[in-house]
């Protein structure tokens, strides 16, 4: 099976432009970038895709063993790059895909020119002096709730993740996205995501990186973004005015402007 089909790869812009590869977060698909990618399509080869098990990917390709860690998703990223012959890649990852991009860049650093990490978290669970935003009991309760009543969990968690209480349509979109996902795959990916610990991988990545941090982010609080910036050897940090965890939907203009400024450096 080709990766174009497996990951529902969609391209825009000139084929000879610098590639920009956009990776979506948990429970979502490539449409979450629809307000961002058009700003770059005139000059860049924009590549969108869905993680296996999400969106319009080939769900029959989902394998619980391959995707038992974030490394499996990072390998998918690298396979997309190889099959499309992408080099000098600007990788833009949201949420958990930020760390997937970090892992891909650590494995094949020569393939990536820049990383844009939107709401990254290398570990969600607090650990001694490290503040991840959740206790282990928090995460265990979250996973238990998800596995026992996925639709109920989706309707409860989506507004918390999105923030922006004054814009309920955004939470509704995220809820609907969650609800379109196979509950078994969602539960598996959630466990892989929320129990991951990629703190040691940050120091392995010398690729110039941009950390975009939202205010009032319930999933990746400001202390986490600061930690990522501090541990990445070659990173810039932008504290967005946007609130919540999904500025690609709630504040696309600010997100685009921050990425454009980073690429112009």
How would you portray this structure in words?
- The chain is of the alpha/beta class.
- The chain has a single domain, classed as Alpha/Beta hydrolase fold, catalytic domain (Rossmann fold).
- The chain contains eleven helices and seven strands.
- It has helices at residues 3-6, 70-83, 96-107, 136-148, 150-162, 168-179, 183-194, 199-202, 222-231, 247-250, 252-263; strands at residues 10-12, 18-23, 44-48, 89-94, 112-118, 209-215, 235-243.
- It has a seven-stranded mixed sheet with strand order 1-3-2-4-5-6-7, sandwiched between helices.
- Helix 3 links the parallel strand 4 (89-94) and strand 5 (112-118).
- The mean pLDDT is 95.
Summarize the structure.
Helix content is 42%, strand content 16%. The protein has 265 residues and is an alpha/beta fold.
Q: Helix and strand layout, with pairings?
A:
Elements: H1 3-6, E1 10-12, E2 18-23, E3 44-48, H2 70-83, E4 89-94, H3 96-107, E5 112-118, H4 136-148, H5 150-162, H6 168-179, H7 183-194, H8 199-202, E6 209-215, H9 222-231, E7 235-243, H10 247-250, H11 252-263
Parallel strand pairs: 2-3, 2-4, 4-5, 5-6, 6-7
Antiparallel strand pairs: 1-3
Helix pairs in contact: 2-3, 4-5, 4-7, 5-6
